[in-house]
Design a protein that fits this description.
This protein is of the alpha+beta class. Helix content is about 45%, strand content about 35%.
Length: about 160
Amino acid sequence: MHPHQALLNRFYQAFQRRDHAGMAACYHPEATFEDAAFRLKGIEIGQMWRMLCERGGDLRLAYNDVWADEHSGRATWDARYTFSKTRRKVHNHVQAHFTFQDGLIRTHHDEFSFWRWSRQALGPMGWLLGWSGFLQEKVRKTAREGLEQFMARPKQ
């Protein structure tokens, strides 16, 4: 097994345990992360995982199809959880793409159907507007504000 493939397995195993520190340790200090809700870099990535792990009370994660070589990698993962804002059940199917630097994740891009996600998480509003740039931008803005509030709170 290539060391980068082992790194991705460690990352997803930490995710399954909701071990945000273990996940953050897999990233290069100059890493970037992008999905439909977040565009992050550096320590923000670990803070996002911390927020999601701490708030994801019923999160269940499965992953497969992990592959990596010297330069890039990919994986497929499925998350099942209750979306905190609406208390609606979500099953998100994600294709992840990675690049590596110095034995760590340098870029991480998660792709999923925003319309499918928004129908589950947001209900009728997601069904009607999930395809629109307007709703996608609103979700991105709300997610960013939530992360900033989470990072600003006093450590417990």
